[in-house]
Design goal:
73% helix
Length: 241
């Protein structure tokens, strides 16, 4: 493809085998926790005040939002390790810089999920731009949607140029992005969250599913030869910084 860097050689399946089990365990754990949250939200248990306060997928600062924030922060940490390892291994600058940018992005996403920063942005924007068809709670779309589009384009181009779409990490990341892009489409069908609870539960499950896939992909990348060994060698040196 013209305009993009040459794809690096794709890792053989054996190269990822050492990280396949940890990646699978992490993804399965996230999905099992989400399955428990889904089960509660789709039963009469959710009508109880304490249960609703802790597990309602439409709530804020509760277990579902903390689970998502933790997963996003774990992605940031894993991407940060990938950037550090690739830099120590003297890999191409666009590769480790890209991982560093991804780490920073997911730190911001984790903070947003935990603190509801996008809703605060929505309230500020609504005071400046009055749009009758857009509730104040969702005015953040005017700011975040363009930034989100730029981010998606960056991720896809970076994956293509540095990992190649055939790599396990890129495939999982693209699947995660596809799940995340489906969420705003579903939210547009019910912008007030007043519709069927099943819709809200499905949206939240797509988000967590994307987080599980992306995190598994980064873990697979870290498990390929030369990544963690570069970190281990650096940390083993006396007086490392």
């Amino acid at each position: 493809m013209t305009g993009l860097a040459t794809y690096p050689p794709q890792p053989a399946p054996a190269d990822c085998s050492r990280a396949a089990h940890p990646a699978l365990i992490v993804a399965a754990t996230l999905l099992l926790l989400q399955a428990g949250i889904v089960a509660v939200n789709l039963t009469p248990l959710i009508e109880r005040y304490t249960v609703s306060d802790l597990l309602d997928v439409n709530g804020e600062a509760n277990l579902p939002s903390w689970l998502s924030a933790s997963a996003l922060l774990a992605i940031a940490a894993a991407a940060g390790l990938a950037a550090w390892a690739d830099r120590l291994a003297a890999r191409p600058r666009p590769l480790w810089r890209g991982w560093a940018l991804i780490a920073g992005l997911f730190v911001l996403l984790s903070a947003d999920e935990a603190a509801g920063l996008h809703e605060l942005i929505g309230e500020k924007v609504h005071r400046i731009v009055q749009i009758e068809a857009l509730p104040s709670l969702y005015s953040w779309v005017l700011v975040v949607a363009p930034l989100g589009l730029v981010t998606v384009i960056f991720l896809i181009r970076w994956l293509a140029a540095n990992l190649g779409f055939g790599s396990p990490t890129a495939r999982l990341a693209l699947e995660a992005i596809a799940l995340w892009l489906a969420v705003p489409v579903l939210e547009a069908l019910d912008p007030t969250h007043g519709g069927p609870r099943l819709l809200s539960v499905f949206e939240e499950t797509l988000e967590v599913g994307g987080e599980a896939l992306f995190l598994a992909g980064v873990i697979l990348y870290l498990g390929m030869p030369g990544r963690l060994s570069a970190l281990a060698s650096h940390l083993a040196k006396p007086g490392h910084s």
